[in-house]
């Protein structure tokens, strides 16, 4: 039997010992699973995401509660932010590049290590959904630019104007004074990375963004890069990043966090170590933002950011938690 398929129904085991009424009032975990280090841990379905995207984790939870997979949960959670025009860092309404074009990056990864990504995708409202199609319908992991857009149309996605009037006006205002410098990501922090565990204990993750506002045309950040913006190892846990993608790419941040958890660190300790490694290479800089969130096989979570007041959203059976996390600055 494969380790990840090892499931034990402890409530069934207990049923022989406990009377029925007692069992129904018991809110104990019902299922357990074996981890990579051969310990048995409870399965705790959960969804977590970067920042305060309450609607996204609520949507993911709705999927999980109906018995859906973590893969469906993270996709549908991410799609909530992609469709929200008030979120100017993701999907429709995202801030454009310096030429005025909205270009989107996204990726998704499942429990078996399958993954798909789209880079520099234009005119498509849900890049995470195209990323999933890349994963499931092609022999590839990444599609970029025009090829990704063409593939999306072939898969039935509609052409959509992503530039809202609000984002267009802000871009025009930026052009007057900008000297064409991209905006460093301090206030502009709405990329969604989302991780979930389902009823079988399986982990999946997704990440989607319009990237750095007013970036150079063609710029791609960390968010669609497996290992940088997102990494899932179903035997250990998962991590995802937000902030200045260039720095996350340089440290292969999300992979690093999962490997630190493999070595025994908690999600919180792993996220702190990941941020500190990046800061060690940027000793004198306080002008940018990097944050990670992580989850392990036990359903424990962690998050850390160089920005004060960093929060991440969790949704469990008990409901939402806005989880504040220690920050570096
Ligand atoms: C990027 N990491 O493109 C993304 C931006 C981001 O919150 O996370 N913004 O570099």
Radius of gyration, Cα only, in angstroms? 20 Å
Determine the mean pLDDT.
Answer: 88
CA-based shape: globular
Strand order of the largest sheet: 7-6-5-9-8-4-14-15
Share of residues in strands: 15-25%
What's the assembly state of these chains?
single chain
Helical amount among residues, as a percent range? 25-40%
SS field, number of helical segments: 10
Write the H/E string, N to C: EHHEEEHHEEHEHHEEEEHHHEEEE
Unreliable residue stretches: 1-29
Number of strands: 15
Model description:
- The protein is of the alpha+beta class.
- Helices cover 31% and strands 24% of the residues.
- The chain has ten helices and 15 strands.
- It has helices spanning 10-15, 20-24, 54-65, 70-83, 127-137, 145-154, 165-177, 245-251, 253-262, 267-280; strands spanning 7-9, 31-34, 40-42, 46-50, 104-109, 115-121, 142-144, 192-197, 203-209, 230-233, 237-243, 290-296, 301-305, 311-316, 319-324.
- It has an eight-stranded mixed sheet with strand order 7-6-5-9-8-4-14-15. Strands 10-11-12-13 form a four-stranded antiparallel sheet, covered by helices on one side.
- Strand 5 (104-109) and strand 6 (115-121) form a beta hairpin.
- Helix 9 packs across helix 10.
- The longest helix has 14 residues, at 70-83.
- It starts with 6 loop residues before the first strand and ends in a 5-residue tail after the last strand.
- Residues 89, 185, 189-191, 209, 211-212, 221-223, 242-245 line the site of N-hydroxy-L-asparagine.
